[in-house]
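Notes taken during the Thursday session

The instructor put the following on the board and asked us to keep it in front of us for the whole hour. The protein is TetR/AcrR family transcriptional regulator. We were told not to look anything up and to reason only from what is written here. First, the residues (193 in total):
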Amino acid sequence: MRPLDPIKQEKILQAVFTVTGTHGLAGISIAGISNAAGVGAGTLYTYFKSKEEIIQAAYSGVEDKMTQKMYEQFDIQIPVKQSLKKIYINMLNYRLNNYNETVFIDQYIQSNYIQLNFSKQMSEFEQQNKPMYDLLKKGQNEGIIKIQPPIILISFFDGAVRSCSNGIVQKLFPLTQQIIDDCFDFVWKGITQ
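Then, after some discussion, the predicted structure tokens were revealed:
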């Protein structure tokens, strides 16, 4: 058996995001993925056993990439507000530059797919987001952040970034530094008061 081509595998995963961006998660089919990736359906089954396995692999891959971008240049030693704003901007930029991937993530999280490996995914989420948990704990220890537990804060934070990026993509408001600052300030006030 010849080795699998990582470039072809990545094309298949990217096709999942393309199909989701156009037709939604419910519109994903083997034929749709195959067509978007430019490979035969038989080739898909060489790389993945089922549509569900492709979707799980796509989720895992994009979650890893998004998390890495989120914590680029993260420094817990700088003030909490400044650190949190850096994460906010990184997340916003990722969402704006990878819209189909974030549509996929948003729909995945709201679907039954999340339940297939929920405990494992939650454990991985906590490990990947340790910098955010540590930062929120630092803010709580300093008396800046009042809300407990951290998962509520992370959910609120994530929802705020998602709303801002959707508003920009849908042209409800422009992408300006003032909008970014205002949206972040809303989040900051929400978790510190």
